[in-house]
Amino acid sequence: MTDPRSAPCAPLRVGILGGGQLARMTADAARVLGLETVVLDPDTDAPAGQVTRQVVGPLEPHDALARFARQIDVATLENEFVHRGALEYLAEHGVMVRPSIHTFGIILDKLHQRAHMDAAGLSPTPYAPIESPADVPAFAARHGWPVVLKTRSQGYGGRGVAIARDASEVEAAWQRLGAGVRPLMAEGFVAFTHELAVMVVRDAHGDVAAYPVVETVQEEYICRVVRAPAAVSAATADQARDVATRAIAAIEGVGVFGVELFLGTDGRVTVNELAPRPHNSGHYTIDACVTSQFENHLRAVIGLPLGSTSMTANAAVMVNLIGTRSGTMDHLHSGARRLGDAWVHLYGKRDLRPGRKMGHVTALGATVEEAEQRARRAADALEL
Q1: Beta strands in 131-191 (DSSP E)
Q2: Is the pTM of this model over 0.85?
Q3: Is-contact 4 12, C-beta < 8 A?
Q4: Using one digit for the tens of pLDDT, what is the confidence trace for 333-363?
Q5: Domains in the chain, please, with CATH?
Q6: How far, in Å, CA of 361 to CA of 345, rounded?
Q7: What local confidence, expressed as pLDDT, does residue 124 receive?
Q8: What does each C-alpha distance from 60 to 53, 113, 157 come to in angstroms?
Q9: How many CA atoms lie within 13 A of 251 on its CB side?
């Protein structure tokens, strides 16, 4: 297929594998650019399918994938729960896949991802594959406790991480991660002062732009709050942006990528994980940056010039809206709207469940503290 940049005026149809909230917000951004989108998702009531055309079917080789392929020119990802064969099928049938199958393959398996970051000098944390609970104490004997256990694939939203602080916690961690149903890996525990993140956007020609460095606040392995910019020194912020952009260059990424980072107690910034798609830590960009992560993702994958990643306010804070009970969301309007000093984004998920991300709130301010106060006030007003 011809590089879209060589014919930027051609009407391009962008296919999104996955129909969740990230696809929904990408489809919203596509309308601003005058792009047509189609999503593929097995859920007949997928959030993105409420705002754009949807093909219902699994994210793997299937009759639905063939119908999807006939409707699009470029394919991109909303999540990592995609069968590699689906991407290969699309490429074989003339669809440009971005990020590439090569890049996706590196990120899909976190063991391979870690090896690439280690080779690039961006994450020196020890790691190893784990085949049985007995491998964990052996790993700890070499590298010390605690040990971080992860599923090597499909660990999203905190569901693929467990920490064993000593040998007595290994069995519980093993069971939490499926008792070996999926391959696991171990990592050494990083002593850190801050969890940081940078959204990096890179196009097929190597042009790259980085959003401000943000601090993420995790609770029970789920991101609860994102503060922009992070309360770190200018030197640390520069180091974080450098590490993040080098990480995406190392995997030849095209599109927007979430780069999760640790600021170690030694002052060094290292890579934790990469996400080959828009990321929760970048949702604030919709309301707080010149160009949102979703618009820049589309710009990168179709070959348009990248937009400015500058913030439009001194500070912004995003608070995730996490379900605390079971029920429905029929009483709240889906989409984006103002609530006091904040913007509320609801994802169109009908079923409310404890721990489920239902939306997010973003507020701006002269300081991070002011923005967070406004965002939390709006979040508390929504009974979820």
Answers
A1: 147-151, 161-164, 184-188
A2: yes
A3: yes
A4: 677 788 889 999 999 998 889 989 999 999 9
A5: 4-97 (3.40.50.20), 126-188 (3.30.1490.20), 192-381 (3.30.470.20)
A6: 6
A7: 85
A8: 19, 22, 22
A9: 39
